[in-house]
Design brief:
By secondary structure, the protein is an all-alpha fold. It has 13 helices and 2 strands, in the order αββαααααααααααα. The chain has helices at 10-39, 56-62, 65-97, 103-111, 118-128, 137-142, 153-181, 185-193, 198-209, 211-227, 230-236, 248-258, 262-287; strands spanning 41-42, 51-52. It has a two-stranded antiparallel sheet. α3 packs antiparallel against α4 and α10 (211-227) packs antiparallel against α13 (262-287). The longest helix has 33 residues, at 65-97. The protein is globular.
Length: 294
């Protein structure tokens, strides 16, 4: 019989809930409410009285071609980094799950990238992919000008995608490995007895059984690429060259803190939040259909 924990004293229950509710209100509801208020007013950059403008800030945002460029860059960045990170992580998890020699060391090593802060990852990739002194400088000596993220927008975009994917590999790896280890060994052994090779068992047995984890990680990775990519972009490319890597969250920072247009930045943050909600809804509406929960 299932037992239920109940509180006879409502004040005790409220005392347990209060710290969490205070954190949520302080760091989510209050900033979100302020952003919504600033999005429909003109916020003076150096103090003063707000002026109500209604939807004018949103109209300005949607009429700006540079903003739509940042939306396009964000979508490409999110999809590319998510696909790359998930692909690498699932391969690493599949190999570690086979308990190859040194698999315990691999578990620790593969998770390390996620322990690093985004600015640290961006700084590392900035030096590694420097066209003059980094690892890629060897290639530039053979083919001069082949790689230069400071002047080539495609090179800069590839660099931030690799940095974001590398940072998320460890997080995805842990979830994939846990999902693979939850599959009964008898299932894979039955496939082996039927003559299925290692790759066939991975594709036909293991991957379909971990689709709930895969769906969860798709949602998390795409959301993270939209909201937590600022540190990488700011350190590596600062949105350049020629706005080729200016994702939506970086444009919010640039317009708000560099351009001192807080109302325009607030309107963009509201649009970003709605876009993430829409993308999450689309994923639950269409991708979840392919998920096998049993």
């Amino acid at each position: 019989m299932e037992k239920r924990a109940t509180f006879s004293n409502l004040w005790l229950a409220a005392a347990f809930i209060a710290p969490q509710m205070l954190l949520i209100f302080t760091f989510f509801y209050w900033p979100a409410g302020e952003a919504l208020y600033w999005a429909v007013t003109l916020e003076p950059p150096f103090g003063g009285t707000n002026e109500w403008v209604g939807w004018l800030n949103f109209q300005t945002v949607f009429a700006d071609p540079k903003y739509w460029d940042s939306v396009r860059v964000s979508l490409l960045f999110g999809l590319s980094s998510t696909a790359l990170s998930l692909g690498i992580a699932v391969l690493l998890a599949l190999f570690v799950d086979r308990r190859l020699a040194g698999h315990q060391v691999y578990k620790f090593t593969f998770f390390l990238p996620y322990a690093l802060a985004a600015p640290a990852v961006g700084l590392a990739f900035r030096f590694i992919f420097s066209p003059d002194a980094g690892f890629v400088s060897v290639v530039n000596r053979i083919w001069p000008g082949l790689w230069n993220p400071a002047f080539n927008g495609n090179d800069a975009f590839i660099m931030i995608v690799l940095a974001q994917a590398w940072m998320m590999v460890g997080y995805n790896f842990i979830f994939f490995l846990a999902a693979l280890q939850s599959i009964p060994r008898t299932v894979s052994e039955a496939g082996a007895m039927d003559g299925a090779g290692v790759l066939r068992r991975m594709w036909d047995i293991q991957l379909p059984l971990i689709t709930p984890t895969l769906f969860f990680l798709i949602v998390i990775n795409i959301t993270d690429s939209f909201v937590n990519s600022f540190g990488i972009v700011d350190i590596t490319t600062a949105g350049g060259p020629a706005r080729a890597t200016e994702v939506m969250v970086y444009k919010i920072y640039f317009d708000g803190f560099r351009g001192k247009d807080y109302s325009l930045a607030a309107a963009q943050s509201i649009v970003l939040m709605l876009l993430i909600i829409a993308l999450t809804f689309i994923q639950f509406r269409f991708i979840e259909r392919r998920v096998h929960y049993s």
